[in-house]
Amino acid sequence: MSSSSTFTPDHKLDLFFPADLISPQVKTQLHPDVHVRPLSSTDYHRGYLSILSVLTQAPDVGYPAWLAQFNAMRASPNTYFPIVIVSKATDRIVGVGCVFIERKFLRGLGSVGHIEDIAVDKNQQGKKLGLRIIQALTDVSEKSGCYKTILNCSDENIPFYEKCGFQKKENEMAKYA
Ligand code: ACO
């Protein structure tokens, strides 16, 4: 897909989850040059992996494998809520994020929302796109009934998440394979 592709409206896309789950208030506050919506099954072609690579390694796995992962994740309903921010001028993705809803036995069968994989195109940072992604995902988490929404981040991103209304709690432990 070229960088001059025409913007594709939501109703022409195969979306991961219904678009009306995204907060209308966040849509109103979003920068006018961009649009926020659920991930679509063709977003591989709109630069999804290249935006994720702003965050970490996101090698090109090819469209068939990417689509198989999209479908495998969507087969667990009400669990993954990946969203994207798209440039209206280019139809390319400029921001991404996801909230994963974890169901629990504690707190009377409570749920926790895990915000994951937030990234904004380097050229688009500072336009409050990251803030809007976090607000939209937190809203999905809260509407899903989660008693808390949590995430892991580097020390340098703590001020960003504080501006999004999050507070530092406890520590992260990791063991890489
Ligand atoms: N340090 C201090 N303040 C910051 C930082 C920072 N690193 N980043 C953003 N802010 C502030 C902004 O100045 C702004 O403040 P203001 O309201 O006073 O103007 C506020 O936070 C909101 O900033 P946005 O414009 O919404 O931030 P942006 O769109 O640039 O996105 C993000 C921030 C997502 C961290 C972006 O810089 C990015 O993609 N970084 C690389 C990838 C990354 O680190 N992702 C997060 C990983 S953690 C996770 O995925 C759970």
Write the layout of secondary structure elements.
Blueprint: H1 24-29, E1 34-38, H2 48-52, H3 63-74, E2 80-87, E3 93-103, H4 106-109, E4 111-120, H5 129-143, E5 148-150, H6 158-163
Parallel strand pairs: 4-5
Antiparallel strand pairs: 1-2, 2-3, 3-4
Bound molecules: acetyl coenzyme *A (ACO).
Residues 54-55, 115-120, 125-131, 151-153, 156-157, 159-160, 163 line the site of acetyl coenzyme *A (ACO).
Number of domains: 1
Task: Please identify the top-level CATH class.
Answer: Alpha Beta
Order of helices and strands: HEHHEEHEHEH
CATH superfamily: Gcn5-related N-acetyltransferase (GNAT)
Structure ligands: acetyl coenzyme *A
Q: For the largest sheet, list the strands in their spatial order.
A: 1-2-3-4-5
Task: Please indicate the percent range of residues in DSSP E strands (runs of 2 or more).
Answer: 15-25%
- List low-pLDDT spans: none
Derived structural class: alpha+beta
Mean pLDDT: 96
CATH architecture: 3-Layer(aba) Sandwich
Helical run tally: 6
Distance, first to last CA: 36 Å
The number of E-state strands comes to: 5
Radius of gyration: 16 Å
Question: Biggest β-sheet, characterized?
Answer: 5 strands, mixed
Shape: globular
Assign a percent range to the helix content. Answer: 25-40%
Would you tell me which CATH topology applies? Aminopeptidase
Describe the protein.
With 177 residues, the chain is of the alpha+beta class. The protein has a single domain, classed as Aminopeptidase (3-Layer(aba) Sandwich). The protein is 27% helix and 21% strand. It is built from 6 helices and 5 strands. The chain has helices at 24-29, 48-52, 63-74, 106-109, 129-143, 158-163; strands spanning 34-38, 80-87, 93-103, 111-120, 148-150. Strands 1-2-3-4-5 form a 5-stranded mixed β-sheet. A hairpin with a 5-residue loop joins strand 2 and strand 3. The protein is globular and about 45 Å long. The termini are far apart. The mean pLDDT is 96. The structure holds acetyl coenzyme *A (ACO). Residues 54-55, 115-120, 125-131, 151-153, 156-157, 159-160, 163 line the site of acetyl coenzyme *A (ACO).
